Task: inverse folding
C-alpha cells in the first residue's frame, strides 16, 4: 500500500495547498474540498473503464435472450453450457466482469484514504506517504459542520459528528440505490428484466445500499465525503450516457427518439418513419419431372396398340 499512500497523499496535499491558502490550513472546509478534489481526479482517471463498463453492461442486456436459449438447449450439460456461454461473450465482445472494474479499482484507493485519515487521528506523529506529522495534526483537528472529519459515527464524542456522519451515510446509501435503479428502469430492455442477470441486478439494487449503510457507520467522515462524491459522479455520468447513448429497445432509447422528433419538428424537419420495402415474392415452380424410362417390353406393347 505504500506506493498508493504516496499517490493519494500527493493529490490530497496538492489540493490542500490550494484550498488551505484560501480558507486556512486547519480549516475543515479546506480538507473536505481537498478530499472532493481527490475524488474527482480518481473518477476522471476511471472514465475509460466506465465506458467499458457501460458497453459491457449494454451487451449483457442485449444478449440475454440468446443466453436463455442456450440455457434451454444445454441446461442438462453444464460444461457445454459454460463453453457456449463464454463463446457468446467472446463473439459479442462482452466481458461479464467489466461492470465490476471501476468499483474494484476504487477499493484500494478507498482503503488508502481510510488509513490516512485513521492514522492522522490515532498516530499523527507517524508519516504516511506525503502526510507529515504537521499535516496529520491539521487533518485530525479539522472541523466541518461541527464535527471532525477524522471521526466516525461509532467513535464520535459529540452529537454534531454523529449527525454529519448519519447524513453522509444516508446520502451514500441513497445515491447507490438511485444509480442502480436508474440503470434498471431506463436502460434495460423488457426481455432483459427476467432471468439470472436481471435477478442479480435486482439483488444488487437492495443489497449494496444496505452494505454501505452498515459499513458507513465505521468510516471516517472524510471517507464518507469521498464515497458520496464518487456516487454522485457515477449517477450523473450514468445519466448522461443513458440519455445520449441508450441501449436499443429500452425506455431511454424511446425517450431519445421522441426528443429527436420534437427537435426536428421545431426546426421544421419532418422525420419520416423508416419504410421497409415489401419482400418480392417470386412464384416457385415445382421441379420438372423427368419421364420414366420404359423397358423394351413396355415399348413393344405400346407399338402393338
Result:
Amino acid at each position: 500500500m505504500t506506493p498508493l499512500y504516496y499517490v493519494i497523499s500527493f493529490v490530497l496535499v496538492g489540493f490542500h495547498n490550494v484550498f488551505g491558502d484560501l480558507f486556512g490550513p486547519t480549516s475543515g472546509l479546506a480538507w473536505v474540498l481537498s478530499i472532493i478534489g481527490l475524488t474527482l481526479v480518481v473518477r476522471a482517471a476511471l472514465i475509460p473503464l466506465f465506458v467499458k463498463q457501460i458497453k459491457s453492461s449494454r451487451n449483457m442486456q442485449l444478449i440475454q435472450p440468446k443466453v436463455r436459449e442456450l440455457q434451454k438447449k444445454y441446461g442438462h450439460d453444464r460444461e457445454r453450457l459454460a463453453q457456449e456461454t463464454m463463446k457468446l461473450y467472446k463473439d459479442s465482445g462482452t466481458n461479464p466482469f467489466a461492470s465490476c472494474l471501476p468499483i474494484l479499482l476504487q477499493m484500494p484507493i478507498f482503503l488508502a484514504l481510510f488509513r490516512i485519515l485513521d492514522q492522522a487521528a490515532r498516530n499523527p506523529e507517524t508519516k504516511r506517504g506525503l502526510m507529515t506529522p504537521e499535516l496529520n495534526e491539521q487533518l485530525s483537528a479539522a472541523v466541518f459542520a461541527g464535527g471532525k472529519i477524522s471521526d466516525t459515527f461509532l467513535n464520535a464524542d459529540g452529537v454534531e459528528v454523529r449527525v454529519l456522519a448519519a447524513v453522509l451515510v444516508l446520502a451514500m446509501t441513497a445515491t447507490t440505490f438511485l444509480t442502480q435503479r436508474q440503470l434498471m428502469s431506463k436502460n434495460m430492455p423488457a426481455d432483459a428484466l427476467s432471468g439470472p442477470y436481471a435477478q442479480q441486478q435486482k439483488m444488487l439494487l437492495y443489497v449494496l445500499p444496505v452494505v454501505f449503510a452498515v459499513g458507513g457507520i465505521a468510516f471516517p467522515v472524510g471517507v464518507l465525503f469521498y464515497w458520496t462524491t464518487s456516487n454522485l459522479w457515477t449517477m450523473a455520468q450514468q445519466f448522461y450516457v443513458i440519455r445520449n447513448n441508450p441501449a436499443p429497445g429500452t425506455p431511454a432509447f424511446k425517450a431519445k427518439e421522441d426528443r429527436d422528433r420534437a427537435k426536428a419538428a421545431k426546426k421544421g424537419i419532418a422525420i419520416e418513419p423508416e419504410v421497409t420495402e415489401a419482400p418480392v415474392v417470386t412464384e416457385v415452380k415445382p421441379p420438372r419431372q423427368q419421364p420414366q424410362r420404359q423397358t423394351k417390353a413396355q415399348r413393344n406393347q405400346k407399338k402393338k396398340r
Remarks:
- The radius of gyration is 31 Å.
- Strands lie at 143-144, 147-148.
